[in-house]
Design goal:
Elements (H helix, E strand, L loop, with lengths): L1 H23 L5 E4 L3 H4 L6 E6 L7 H17 L2 E6 L4 H13 L2 E6 L4 H13 L3 E5 L10 E5 L1 H18 L6 E6 L5 H20 L3 E7 L5 H14 L3 E6 L2 H13 L15 H8 L6 E3 L2 H16 L8 E4 L6 E7 L2 E3 L4 H6 L5 H4 L4 H7 L4
Parallel strand pairs: 2-3, 2-4, 4-5, 5-6, 6-12, 7-8, 7-9
Antiparallel strand pairs: 1-3, 10-13, 11-12
Helix pairs in contact: 1-8, 3-11, 4-5, 6-7, 8-9
The structure holds beta-D-glucopyranose (BGC).
């Protein structure tokens, strides 16, 4: 019964979101550049098309990925077109078709799910367009390259982080809630494999108690709030929350606040967003995982630029696609755990600025945290 109500509520939330997205948004955002003067010197490079997934599941896509990719393409003097599908699978495919029609010779995608990702990759390949899976592997997709972070390690850092925060709080047999990422995102599967690898032995030994464990469709932050509210109703003694990214973490924190439990129940995250870091500064979030997106964007842009020039770049490693069994040439970068004491590292790296992080009430907290 409860399940029925939950899925109805979830469906309503999806509908409401969809409507807001259509009504309040001017549609997919894009930024383009035709090859400038510097490009003419770079032996007739082709055009690079990039499709980002959305702008709500994480701030990173618009604030970090777009910016760093753009910088890298500009520096290389290649023509590019970066668009955001705003979580619309039909738009995703239309954008890909348009990019190919408009002369893209390289297509870099962050898929919304493996099925539609594969359709786009198949189409690109049939037109002789080179393909790169950016951040998310398209299962069975057969992209020529994959650039991401070690996503199992991201999950391991989250699991270890939750253990550390609960140990610091001297929690005894804490009930753990798991708020997982989108079931259609292969990364969410890898994150979960990472953190369950740490948490399961704790459940098995009886140190921790396994509580509610649910995935959040499309990483939708609004639905995450509804789901966590249900979790807390069914298990009011939840003492630790493994949230798969900062957006989901913030949704849980909002519910915890309403119940005067924020700061008492450690919550994890990922992406080192301004909101996540601010939640850490005030003690509502215990940790996040910083992924230096500049490095990811630079690695992907390097491959894309080489492909656009007709070269056949080699990647430093490979990842086995669990669906096709094929090895996909890959670049995987290293994630870093962030706690209150090293929030300053994220600022020092230039990923977020002191100006955006240390506003209003956070100013004093920033000073305490040694943020220059
Ligand atoms: C990315 C995360 C992001 C999430 C939601 C994942 O595939 O790796 O960085 O938070 O998608 O957008």
């Amino acid at each position: 019964m409860r399940k029925g109500i939950l899925s109805l509520t979830a469906a309503a939330a999806v509908l409401a979101l969809g409507l807001t997205a259509c009504g309040g948004n001017s549609g997919p955002t894009s930024s383009t550049s035709s090859a400038s003067s510097s490009a003419s010197s770079s032996q007739k490079a082709g055009k690079i098309g990039v499709i980002l997934p959305d702008s709500k599941s994480s701030a990173r896509w618009e604030t970090a990925d777009r910016k760093y990719l753009e910088e890298a393409f500009k520096a290389a003097g290649v023509a590019y077109d970066i668009q955001n599908a705003q979580n619309d699978k039909t738009a995703f495919q239309t954008i890909a078709d348009q990019m190919i029609t408009n002369g893209a010779t390289v297509l870099m995608i962050v898929n919304l799910d493996s099925g539609t990702g594969k359709t786009v990759i198949d189409k690109a390949k049939s037109q002789g367009v080179a393909t790169i899976d950016y951040d998310r592997l398209t299962l069975g997709g057969g992209a020529a390259y994959y650039v991401s972070f070690d996503n199992t390690k991201v999950g391991t850092l989250q699991g270890e982080g939750l253990v550390k925060c609960l140990t610091d709080k001297k929690a005894s047999k804490p009930i753990i809630a798991e708020l997982n990422g989108s079931p259609t995102d292969n990364n969410a599967t890898l994150f979960k494999a990472g953190y369950d690898g740490v948490l399961k032995p704790k459940y098995d030994s009886g140190d921790f108690v396994k509580g509610p464990d649910q995935s959040v469709p499309d990483w939708d932050n609004t639905q995450a709030g509804t789901i966590f509210e249900q979790m807390l109703t069914s298990a009011p003694k939840i003492a630790g929350v493994l949230a798969a990214n900062d957006g989901l973490g913030n949704a849980a924190i909002t519910v915890l606040k309403k119940n005067n439990l924020n700061g008492k129940v450690p919550v994890t995250g990922q992406d080192a967003t301004v909101q996540g870091l601010q939640n850490i500064l005030v003690g509502d979030q215990c940790m996040t995982v910083y992924k230096a997106v500049k490095k990811e964007a630079d690695a992907a842009a390097k491959l894309a630029v080489a492909l656009a020039k007709g070269e056949k770049p080699t990647a430093s490693g490979s990842v086995k696609d669990p669906q096709s069994g094929q090895d996909v040439p890959s670049e995987l970068l290293d994630p870093q755990a962030i706690y209150l004491d090293n929030v300053k590292d994220v600022v020092a790296d230039g990923y977020v600025t002191k100006q955006e992080l240390c506003t209003g009430d956070f100013t004093a907290k920033c000073t305490e945290a040694g943020i220059q």
